[in-house]
């Protein structure tokens, strides 16, 4: 529809109709039901509000959506279509690995392809917008939602942001098989104080701008249609009421012209934060700040009318918000085709099709991170291997936010190993959580009805299996219910019952390879001590078991690198590679010196750092060769290394480029990722890898908050992880 027609439609709409266009309810208001992903608001929703609503979340299914859309448009005074939104975070029916795992692939194509598959499936099911990508930078493993992020690095997250938006939207989200992307959670929701979900965020403006905002901006520049406000505060102002954040930064500086939607009940929660005395004031602050859609509360639909009629709010503010919602529908082509791609036949064809399963399996294999291996891996099919642990059979491996996928469609480790015909025995050994435990997940309940006696019998069987085997693959980790939204944990170790299993197995068989299932970095010191290999598989998605079997048996070598540091202990958190220098940086040569920045009881370094990961072979690196030691203003130089596979198997290495600004007008990080390239090399094969370095890569917010590079000395590091010392120096001269 032409813009002129949209403006005419806006003109024709009554005040109440315009206000209700900003309301988003969830499917519970419509037949066909829906999954609630937040607290039910205690206030009533009027019949008129529902009838004139502008959008709805968490309704899925082509037939269901077509029926609801048809009825809605018939009843709407101007027959304006609903826009159907849902949380498609790592797949719709075919679950890909969780986003944190996808970050470990250090390959944006994995993310883009996952988003393309998700869009194809979701759009056939009638969904028109996804509440993804989640681009919150994360440095705190206590926070359960790290699983939704691509990790702790600004550059990696920004590269993935662009890939994800392109995967969902393509060149034009109106096209078949494409859906609108909604960037979230704006902004910096990943830095809650104490790692506790929904808590406030305390960041300097410089850290917000240098570290947290770039990934959101990359998604905005890639054309994301929506941005979702976060639950947290910034500068002690809730994001949904934060005019500086939404109007000055998002729209003014980033140039975002799309639609801003609140997170679930976040407008009403402005009152809970104590910044609004009631829902009416919350509605006023939110519209003033530039939040367009009110998700799941009636602050807007109950109070905007009187706020506008009393003159407290200018109707122009309402009109601009409503126009952005109408423009969103127009960008999706809903005025011409309100059902978009909803198609029952297409649903049957694409959902969980073989091609999507294959892509999900290939993606999963790229996300696994091998942290330890003394040679026990890869396994040989003729070896007698005992697969032990709760995750040998577990199908809840699709990710906490895979709320529309079905774990029964997932391939377990046991099924994957059987599928490749390996000589294996299986024993569960224990449940994921303690006997009798009950734990609500995002949209399921974990319950163990095991008695202590039964638990002991399971353990005894597992010990017996371990005694008969050449090697043990111990499949353990945190349960999916322990991750995701509202899943902050102060203890980030594996459950006690699994620790007991590990110890009992280690007593009878030292040849243990641990396969770790997790939605966050965990404290795995004891696992590292007792195992000869550790393979992190995260929550690997629908094809997890097949992917794990193929990597364990060497059909594909592991190729992942950590997108988030694994702490030595939770006491280190937040811990991240690009920390800052201090006045008394720890000198490892003088550990006895008390007066330096260190702990008395644990090391400063994480157990495993960002960017770390092994393959089934070794690589050598040449020194860093610079095309020049001097980078002119607006010029460029290259940094090159030659990487060689010096082992006996094909393997993968992600070559990483880090840069350290030796001095700045403000403190600068000890190094920052500025490039990476993933290589697959055969034994003996070598490849030269070159990175172009430009002034733009050296910019930051200086002492005057100006985004600029400063002349001076820089050190370039090129290697296989963020602790590499393979380096060379250059100067930037103006
Ligand atoms: C939830 C989440 C958000 C999600 C929204 C809709 O509370 O914070 O990520 O998109 O509600 O389900």
Task: Note the main attributes of this structure.
734 residues; alpha/beta; Rossmann fold; Immunoglobulin-like; eight-stranded parallel sheet; 20 helices; globular; binds alpha-D-glucopyranose
Please characterize this protein's 3D structure:
The protein is an alpha/beta fold. Among the domains are: 359-572, 3-Layer(aba) Sandwich (Rossmann fold); 619-733, Immunoglobulin-like (Sandwich). The protein has 20 helices and 29 strands. An eight-stranded parallel β-sheet has the order 9-6-5-4-3-2-1-10. β5 (180-186), α8 and β6 form a beta-alpha-beta unit. The model has no long low-confidence stretch (mean pLDDT 96). Alpha-D-glucopyranose is lined by residues 37-38, 57, 87, 131, 184, 263-264, 485.
Topology:
Blueprint: H1 3-12, H2 15-20, E1 23-26, H3 47-51, E2 55-57, H4 62-75, E3 83-86, H5 99-104, H6 108-124, E4 129-130, H7 154-169, E5 180-186, H8 205-221, E6 226-229, E7 233-234, E8 237-238, H9 243-253, E9 259-261, H10 269-272, H11 279-289, E10 294-295, H12 299-309, H13 315-331, H14 344-350, H15 354-367, E11 369-373, E12 385-388, H16 413-419, E13 424-427, E14 438-440, E15 445-447, H17 452-468, E16 471-477, H18 496-508, E17 512-517, H19 525-530, E18 533-536, H20 544-552, E19 619-621, E20 625-626, E21 630-632, E22 636-645, E23 651-661, E24 672-681, E25 686-694, E26 700-701, E27 707-708, E28 712-719, E29 727-733
Parallel strand pairs: 1-2, 1-10, 2-3, 3-4, 4-5, 5-6, 6-9, 12-13, 12-16, 16-17, 17-18, 21-29
Antiparallel strand pairs: 7-8, 11-18, 14-15, 19-22, 20-22, 22-25, 23-24, 23-28, 26-27, 28-29
Helix pairs in contact: 1-13, 6-7, 6-15, 7-8, 11-12, 15-20, 16-20, 17-18
Bound molecules: alpha-D-glucopyranose (GLC).
The site of alpha-D-glucopyranose has 9 residues, from loops.
